[in-house]
Amino acid sequence: MHRYVQNRVLVYLKMLLILTDTVCLNVIFVLVFSGLSATGLVNAQEVISSNYYSLWMMFNLVALVSSLYFRLYENNTIERLEHVFRQTFRTALTLLIVFSGCVLIGHQFTGIWYFLAAIILLVSIYVGLSRFVLTYIYTVLPKRFRWSKNVALIGHNDYLSAVEGNFSQNHAFYHVNTIKYYDEIEQRSKEEKVAQFRRYFEEVSKLGIHDVFLVSTPDINTYSKELIMAADHECVQLNFVPAVSATLSYGNTKNDAVRVELPVIRSHEESLSTMENRIKKRIVDLIISSLVIVFVLSWLVPIIGLIIKLQSPGPIFFKQPRSGRNNQTFGCYKFRSMVVNKDSNKAQATKDDKRITPIGKFLRKTNLDEFPQFINVFLGQMSVIGPRPHMLSHTEHYSKLIQHYMVRHFVKPGITGWAQVNGYRGETKDPGLMAKRVEYDLEYMNNWSAMLDLKIIFMTALNMIRGEKNAY
Question: For 43, left (φ over 0), alpha (ψ -120 to 50), or beta?
């Protein structure tokens, strides 16, 4: 399941497991050597003379190779507790056998059997205790802290049953909401069918579910494009599960039915769809936003704020409702660049706009008005780099005019983005200009990398120095 629907808790557990295993195994090695040397059971000078560090490196190397060979830390393993148990046993057993053999062959020192016995004992104790704690984490905490990721499964009753059990059976980190339909939908026209699925997508989106698996029968394949567009409009990631595979079985019992390893066709596959990349991006966002808040906004806000107050009455910051990830509304912060007016939440700034104050014109030209949005980044509502968040009225308007417009809401909005550094910013009266923005936003999502983000940051800094011709 994790291959198609990302649950950040599983990624954190994976990182935690790698960290604790690495640290604890090395602590065990050092404790065994230090303890046996202190009691005289192992001659420390004799071990050091036979290269203690090569012994330590060999222990880590065997542990690393064993974990990689048995795929202990891969997503498919971490997803289920029984898989973790199985691969942990295989990895630990291989580590102890191979390491013991290498020590006996390549190193000879007094107390070697005490050393190996202590390593085997403490590693076994650690594996048992750590996996016991992991059992509690997997079986109790998901329910207590609601770590389960909600997904929806939609399909015809005749084809759904084979898939339903495989998706929802004994899973701590995913909860499957099933929507069944019967023969009457098959008797409707194409438009009526699409309208029905659109209502399904609206229903799950209101419940906060943005990952849907659709068991696709042959008739669905004829209007799959329309279904994807309907799902995109509700910020729903659509995954097609072929019905012919869903009903496939082998053997003589129900337990032999094909499980989650079904062929799944995703409607969108971009770099930022993986939770690992999202977490990397979030860590960078936290670092950058923290530095800007502490070392820039701490002195910039009082200076800019004083000038704003002197030029026009009203607040220093302008907080405007904008469309965020999954089309969730959030308050986007900016330095107030206009006089207080009732049209600020619906009317874009235009050239020679009389609402803009003198300091506001400078702030907009240099992009300094966007700096308070680092607070939004710190709060997790935005990213440093991403599609620019639009006003709610613009989201509603352009989502009806531009194909795939809502796909840009699959990721967090950014302070600056690929479209902006390529000149598409400012006023957008022409729908064609907004379409180009969307095109660049989707290109960014499909080709995201840390280097691309770095490139956009440098291009934004250069634009700030030169001044934006489209900013007014």
Answer: beta
